[in-house]
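Q: Here's a chain of 327 amino acids. Please give me its 3D structure as tokens.
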Amino acid sequence: MKTAVLGGGAWGTALAAQLARNGHPVALWLREAAIAEELRTRRTNHLYLGDVVLPEGITPTLELGAAVVDAEAVVVAIPSQFARGVYAQVASRLAPGAVLVSATKGFELDTLLRMSEVAAAEAPGHPIAALSGPSFALEVARGQPTAVVVASAQPAAAEAIQLAVSSASFRAYASDDLIGVELAGALKNVVAIAAGILDGLGYGHNTTAALITRGLAEIARLVAARGGRADTVSGLAGLGDLVLTCTGALSRNRRLGQALGAGRTLAEAQEPHQVAEGVRTTLAACAMAAASGVELPICERMRSVLHEGQPPRQALEALMLRSLKRE
């Protein structure tokens, strides 16, 4: 299968590596000429993936339109705020029947649309899937065992991408719950920032376990309200990704929270060349909750910390002092 991956960051490059290991020729579109040259000459992307040597079969390109020509599957792994523009640019160049695969865990802030909805708006008529689950890019690039979910409202599209990416070290499960997979994958980043804050404040495992459990309950409420399924929340795209992102040292959202908990400002906590999607997702999640009539107290506290200047320790106290409820 001829494939294209749009986005030369850690996740896009890791997915390109997985596809190339499976024998699929991959055109990898990226913006940085220096990284493209490094990929061509050394088969590395040191800025994002260190000294990992990538497989042959990846062709880096700076030309967006050229990357997608004749591609049977186009994987989009770029920050959510740039997604609409990229889909709009490639729409007229896509091959008939090409499957669009969103690997972005976020929302469009102005419209509150999921990434698959943005893709459908800009490139109508193409099958659309989302790839999500507990998957740090560096470990995928190294070929370490990983399991993910490929979701689509069109079973044939999900199964085609499932087959394309799966290998002895990368197992993909198919799902038809596109809503649940996308919502869970985006919302876990908000909870991961909160988990990092707890660590930065010096709290222990009891506190983190409580946060993860109640964070999962919030994700489940919003998924149900927006039309997703409960079994998705308890699976790889929900619980699996939440646990990984809240506890793993490679989580950029968790690291950002740790810096905030240690007293740094949001501007100071942002890492160069890295996007912590949870910062923007917090605003979208709270807006979705209000529109859907559900409570997301952790997300609301994170909005207060990230966008309204509330001190992190004060936000935790506000959560603990909420009125008592049944579980």
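Q: Can you summarize the key feature?
A: The beta strands are 3-6, 26-29, 58-61, 73-76, 99-102, 107-108, 113-114, 128-132, 146-151, 170-175.
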